[in-house]
Write a structure and sequence with these properties.
alpha/beta; binds flavin mononucleotide; five-stranded parallel β-sheet; 244 residues; two-stranded antiparallel sheet
């Protein structure tokens, strides 16, 4: 039995809202979890909707509390770290972390960044030791798989793509995932949302197909470590253009 943590970050709900179609990243997340449930019906899901309920931003007092040793914290400091403790506990028990997020202003939504800021915490998810030289941070968790499901209005954010240098979403999440104990990372995305054309419709189909294949692959047995990105948004464009 595995535990799956689902973090959704779109400010949009799923389905139609006032005649406009809803969140595509939530659509992919929903697809993933329903396929996963179908193949792994004993697994446990934990949902964290940071899009609907964004975690608090860092404050001077929060940082002071995080850097005060556990024994010396005041009741106020313990209360300040309560949400962080809860979010970290959710990450710590997860074997698989699914993050479904839009691209906003070429990066992640502020709500998702607030979640990472609450979760990546000294002596909880990483240790800090200057004896390690130029890389003093080390994750305290290990063995997790992260699936990143994205949606963007534009396209070409993949390595070598038209907008590679503007992509501060996938690479950022991938960097941060190290401090959640992630050792296997997969990314699938829908693109062209703002164009609303055939390329967008094809991108949805390809992403849905990639989600189904990934669920099957991950359900087959022990996950293999240090896997490369499975399917990036740009690969959908390449597939459409008939490129390898
Ligand atoms: C505030 C905001 C900022 C956005 N910024 C970008 C962007 O920088 N690049 C891009 O390709 N699309 C951008 N988009 C488009 C979204 O990525 C796209 O609508 C996506 O489908 C949203 O995810 P969702 O469908 O899960 O809500 C932006 C949309 C919003 C609302």
């Amino acid at each position: 039995m595995k535990k799956v943590l689902i973090v959704e970050a779109s400010a949009r709900a799923q389905g139609l809202v006032e005649g406009r179609s809803g969140s595509l990243s939530r659509f992919l997340s929903d697809r993933f979890s329903s396929r996963w449930r179908h193949l792994n019906n004993e697994d446990i899901f934990i949902y964290r909707d940071v899009g609907a309920m964004p975690p608090q931003f860092m404050s001077h007092k929060w940082i002071a509390a995080a850097f005060t040793s556990e024994e010396s914290r005041s009741a106020e400091q313990r209360a300040l770290l309560c949400l962080s403790d809860q979010l970290i506990a959710e990450v710590a028990q997860a074997d698989l972390i699914l993050i479904a997020t839009p691209m906003y202003n070429y990066g992640m939504p502020a709500s998702l960044k607030a979640w990472f800021d609450q979760v990546i915490r000294v002596n909880k998810t990483f240790s800090f030791d200057l004896a390690r030289g130029d890389f003093p941070l080390q994750p305290l968790l290990s063995g997790k798989t992260l699936v990143l499901l994205t949606s963007s209005g534009e396209f070409g954010f993949e390595p070598g793509g038209l907008r590679e240098s503007m992509n501060h979403l996938g690479p950022h999440v991938r960097t941060l995932s190290h401090y959640l104990g992630v050792e296997e990372f997969h990314e699938i995305g829908i693109e062209y949302q703002e164009f609303g054309d055939d390329r967008h419709r094809a991108s949805i189909d390809l992403a849905r197909q990639a989600v189904d294949e990934l669920v099957e692959q991950l359900s087959r047995g022990p996950v293999h470590l240090h896997a490369d990105v499975f399917f990036t948004p740009g690969e959908a464009s390449a597939a459409l253009a008939g490129k390898p």
